[in-house]
Amino acid sequence: MTPRAEYPRPHFDRSHTWSSLNGDWDFRADADQHWDRTISVPFAWETPASGIEAHWLPVAWYRRRITVPAGWAGQRIVLHFGAVHHEATVWVNGTEVARHVGGYTPFEADITDALREGEQEILVRVSSPADKREIAHGKQRSIPRDDFDGVCFTPSSGIWQSVWLEARPATHVAALKLRPAEGLDGIEVEARVEGPAPATLRLTVRGHGTTVEIPVSDGAAPQADGDAGHAAPQADGGVARAVPQAGGRVVRTVLQIAEPRLWSPEDPHLYHVDAELVSADGTDRVAGYTGLRRIEVSGEDLYLNGQRLFVRGVLDQGYWPRTGITAPDDAALRRDLELAAAAGYNLVRKHLKLEDPRFVHHADTLGMLLWAEPAATGRFSAESVAAFEAQIAPMTERDGNSPAIVIWGLYNEEWGLDWDIPGDPAKQEAAARAYDLLKALDPTRPAVENSGWAHVKTDLLDWHYYDESAASWGRTIAALLNGDQDDFPVPLGPDYVVRKKLTGSPSQPLRGLPNLNSEYGTGFTSVQRGWQLRWQTQEMRRHDRLAGYVYTEMYDIEHESAGLLDFERRPKDLAGVDPAHVNATTTLVLDVVPVAPGRDLLSETGRVTVPVRISHHGTDSVSGHLHTAWSPVFGPAPARAGTAGERAEAKPFLLGAPAEVHAELPDGWTSGRLHIALVSDDGIVLARSAVDVDTHIAPVIGDDPQARP
Model pTM greater than 0.90? Predict the structure, then answer.
């Protein structure tokens, strides 16, 4: 059975004429003389799934013999690689056809002129240096180690995304860029045509009857409808133009959509565009898709299709047991998104990795928002900056059609910038230049040039704040959002804590941009993590100025046990905390400074009064009565019958006024979990939370009794 047999490039689909080359390839280390091993492509050679499990192997070779389908005679044959880490040289029948550097970006080679009669031999040499610090390697370990080695994982070297063949005419569509029109009433199309012959490009919105035909000449001057220098008005009101450009000819037009249906997480509607190019070389057909949606920054808020958006995000690092950075199958990519949605998240931040394009495709179809970013380098040098920047154009070209991607990330926490943006103008310039490069390619999405701190040029003011103390967490979050402080503590080692500023340059404003806490989450056990998830998240929901958050992280990876799920994507014991309640559109904010897991409130008498507020990010106001019920803190006993109390309400994106809950532990109980729910007048539970009450008032290690300011 062929691994990863699905068509690998859904945003630029030529699947009517392709052949997968995944499966068994001959394999040998560079020092070996004989092809005595077999590797399963597309799994990295460190992984069990590859059948090799070789670690710190610097150079290896792949070989496969293939036969080109007879029906492809007369066409150009193109060999595609989704991604190879890190440097690949490719020969076909002894002729070098490609050399590519960069472990996360795709490449292709027209191998037609290297083909012979009958069987073909493909040979690939891959170099994956142990010292990865000056190359883009994301979370893969390096020797010597990166400064961030403690949060890195087993390297994934070699061919780690699909390999395949396609057939196309000599004159063909080389790229198909699709973006929503300004008024969200059509699709802006930019098609790049390569090849020697004049052609006619026919663009059709599938199922909508919207079609444009555009002549594409082989001359040096613009041509449209035979009149060089004038655009050709189309029947649908769009304007088409074909112009010469380096590497080919570019066609631009607008495909109008009658009664447009917008893409959103609630309705992830997609429009498919079929491109047919007819020339003397033959007919080329490709398809792409996009969604009509607008993501924009307005002051301190994010808006999606004109409605305010609150980001409820989770970090996803894209690792799997036994298969490394390659998903074991297509269903695993989709399953990770479904798990995030089930936990209440509306956005996934794919961290420091250009993920398999099918992951982006599944997000498009499921309606999950994405934050996408390239792989990180390790140390600052001219070479590492160039390696990092080399990913930006391929990232935007490959994934830019996706409606799900609403944020582009770039550097992360000054990785690859020696953690010293504020102290070095050259590093400030590198971060700002990456932002400029990205925005020149795609101005339609907000971009973050250095996620976490020390911003120099960004559309979003995001920060990464980790804190084990619930009390100081609440105070620091409030101070950051109120403008009382612009820095926060960051532990960089066991005994090394520094204060990181939000900005690394005087030119970067501290106010007037959306604020996101784009990494948080602490606790060494799953019980502690569940407790921190509930209390830290509710503190962020307290502040209406916040534009969102990203929790670290969805699942464990190797030694890193920070996930809501384990590495196999199985649920962990979070001591009764349901992430879906924590991350819901409507949540409860309790005016409590919790003491410790299992002991949020200490009460000698067992009687408590809890002020409760509503945080709501829907489109309409919500209201209902607060209901309470008791259960053991850690135990399987079901909650006892609840009682209704005060009424509470909230308007969208405005924290509601406090309503009090009064409760007393049941007779004979010395501790218990007080469940609090907001129930609508028609009996629907709108929001849930809980507080653990303990009558043992002895001091708790790490207890911080200070109240919220």
Answer: yes
